[in-house]
Amino acid sequence: MTKTRRGASAKIDSLRSEAKGCRDCPLWKNATQTVFGEGSAKAKLMIVGEQPGDQEDLQGHPFVGPAGRILDEGLRQAGINREVTYVTNAVKHFKWEPRGKRRLHKTPAQRELDACYQWLEGEIAAIQPDLILALGATAAKALLGSTFRITQSRGQLQRREGLVDVIATYHPSYLLRLKGRAGEEEAWKQFVADLKTAQKYVQE
Fold first, then answer.
1. Is residue 133 in a domain?
2. pTM of the predicted model as reported, rounded to 2 decimal places
3. Range of the domain at 68
4. What is the CA radius of gyration of the chain?
């Protein structure tokens, strides 16, 4: 490991430790724990989702629940080894509302995204990926601005002057909601195609 990558790993560890005590928005109050990013310190591809889900909140790791299994299968079909990527979320605490005995996901508010952006920004600065793959509208808007629309620009390379380029695609949870419904097969094909586009970009 080079000195630069050791430095990246140390920086991520420092950020993770700091984020455990973050109280910059109210989400920590109802979350089990902070769920920070994980993966290779020398990742060329950074994958950014919206926020931890129920299982992520309980286990303390990103994308380990049902949406994580969808992501893993998409990565496999696209020929991407998850172990050489860095996977994180725009928001590090699980935002939810009770529904019987279940904890149902709630979309983070802009103020919560803003409060958490310091951690995502720190991760990007430490890892210095060649490309960020944004999963879903919330992650895409956190990186590309509130006017970005997945429906209009999914799968298209977004070049950002002086910043890391971004490709946005569907969030795996969206694909889960499509199970057994019209459009499921086409959405899956588009998702895998976007992952392949990301893979090709970082290999060039």
1. yes
2. 0.95
3. 3-92+102-203
4. 16
